[in-house]
Amino acid sequence: MASFPTLGVNPTITDWRESKVDDPTIRLKTDGGYTVTGVRFTRTPPKKFHLKYEPLSAAEKASLESLENEVHVGAGMITWTNPFTGVSVDGRLAAPIEFKPYKGAPGLWSAEFDFEEA
């Protein structure tokens, strides 16, 4: 299992989001105007974290790209430590990491992605 690289910054608070990976509710709207609900899964779905790290140096960007290549984006498992709780979480990338130049500053980057608990 791969480990998330140590970065010089924490995820930005303004872009931090937590939710369930999937909505476990089955909803059926009836002709009578009410909704019937039920449970889709036998267990509670795991959490998904939306993370944005910025500014990142070119070396930190390279370490994230290396991790992404090592785990083949979402195929392999990663151990990530939640910086707000200190709890280690095993999971995977939900999609490829999106890199953008950071506010036009040469050599600085922004990385945004979703991380799903396993």
Q: What about the largest sheet?
A: 7 strands, mixed
Given helix and strand content, the structural type is mainly beta
**C-alpha-based Rg, rounded:** 18 Å
Order of helices and strands: EEEEEHEEEE
- Rough outline: elongated
Unreliable spans are none
Secondary structure layout plus pairing:
Elements: E1 2-3, E2 17-20, E3 25-29, E4 35-39, E5 47-56, H1 58-70, E6 78-81, E7 88-93, E8 98-101, E9 109-117
Parallel strand pairs: 1-6
Antiparallel strand pairs: 2-5, 3-4, 5-9, 6-7, 7-9, 8-9
Describe the structure.
The chain has 1 helix and 9 strands. The chain is mostly beta strands. The strands form 2 sheets. Strands 1, 2, 5, 6, 7, 8 and 9 form a 7-stranded mixed sheet that branches. Strands 3-4 form a two-stranded antiparallel ribbon. The radius of gyration is 18 Å and the shape is elongated. The chain starts with a strand and ends with a strand.
Condensed summary:
The chain is mostly beta strands and 118 residues long. The protein has one helix at 58-70; strands at 2-3, 17-20, 25-29, 35-39, 47-56, 78-81, 88-93, 98-101, 109-117.
Index terms:
single chain; 118 residues; mainly beta; two-stranded antiparallel ribbon; 1 helix; 9 strands
